[in-house]
Specification:
Blueprint: H1 5-12, E1 15-17, E2 20-21, H2 27-36, H3 40-43, H4 59-65, E3 69-73, E4 91-93, E5 104-108, E6 111-115, H5 121-134, E7 142-146, H6 174-202, E8 211-214, E9 220-221, E10 227-228, H7 235-238, E11 239-240, E12 242-245, E13 253-255, E14 259-260, H8 264-272, H9 287-291
Parallel strand pairs: 1-13, 2-14, 3-4, 3-7
Antiparallel strand pairs: 1-12, 2-11, 5-6, 8-12, 9-10
Helix pairs in contact: 5-6
């Protein structure tokens, strides 16, 4: 199904990695590795609900020290600030109370959570665009992290949403119906990513902004007898999308070289022209690979 026209267009303008790998198939540990360039056995956030220790310097902290405005907009309780994910962000928006999603009391990782566990992509995009429009120091460069949750269990697209493709007759089968819902969620998120990218253009920021799209993990859809993620590390669980666009700086192409997601922070720091934090990173920058010069 044609689930991602906006991501396809973005990939045509940047570098799409054919083989990028997350360090784990679980949200919390993968995000901490993304932001610290450390493997989970080093930063010790080994499962969701564990707290990031303040001793580990994050990409947001490093960029803040370099003069960047830093902000995050997240869509799930999994990345709530109580677990330390706000470390280094001047603005950390984890408020999903205005999202059109159900509110309940439920058990998660040994605690009772009240309210909404996640928000939808339209609410996430609205909050991210608001920050871009009102960012406090327009003369500064910015680092904005936007977290979308929608292509994730439970697959619950907005009521009445019509995807840009026909589902076909096969959705009568239970597994095929689940796959169809997953595809609809991808399409809905892709639409909202398109709105976010359009916002960059409307604010005249697109040409001078590095845009990176990635996933923290994949999803098992019965390829190896498992649904969802976190219980295995087959390709579908840890091989993830990675697109990097920097107009006029990176030649568009598909890059076949294998890269780890924990190399992204060192890569962005090389783009910034700073060696800050490099002595602690457990992965090398792949900026040279992106530029095509090594």
């Amino acid at each position: 199904r044609d689930t991602a026209p906006n991501l396809r267009a973005l990939a045509a303008e940047g570098v799409r990695f054919a083989a990028a790998y997350a360090p784990t198939a679980t949200t919390g540990p993968s995000h901490v590795s993304l932001f610290t360039a450390l493997y989970p056995m080093t930063h010790r956030v080994l499962k969701n609900g564990h707290r990031l220790a303040a001793e580990h310097e994050t990409l947001a902290e490093i960029l803040a020290a370099e003069g960047f405005d830093t902000a995050a907009v997240v869509s799930s309780y999994v990345l709530n600030r109580k677990f330390g994910y706000d470390q280094g962000f001047a603005s950390y928006d984890d408020d999903v109370s205005q999202a059109d999603t159900p509110s309940a009391s439920f058990q998660w990782e040994g605690e009772t959570v009240e309210g909404k566990f996640f928000g939808r992509a339209d609410d996430t995009t609205r909050r991210a665009r608001d920050w871009l429009t009102r960012r406090p120091h327009r003369e500064r460069p910015f680092f904005l992290f936007v977290h979308y949750f929608d292509p994730h269990d439970p697959y619950a697209p907005p009521p009445g949403y019509r995807p840009p493709f026909e589902l076909g007759r096969e959705v009568a089968l239970k597994l095929e119906r689940t796959l169809a819902l997953y595809d609809i969620e991808i399409a809905y998120t892709d639409e909202q990513i398109g709105r976010l990218l359009a916002g960059l253009g409307e604010l005249d920021l697109a040409q001078d902004t590095v845009v990176v799209v990635l996933a923290d993990h994949g999803e098992g859809l019965m390829q190896h007898g498992h649904m969802f993620h976190g219980v295995h590390i087959y390709e579908e669980a840890v091989r993830v999308p990675l697109i990097v666009r920097w107009p006029g700086r990176l030649a568009p192409r598909v890059e076949p070289q294998v890269v780890p997601l924990i190399g992204l922070a060192p890569t962005l720091m090389e783009f910034v022209g700073s060696a800050r934090g490099a002595d602690r990173f457990q992965a090398q920058s792949f900026a040279g690979l992106l530029r095509g010069d090594e």
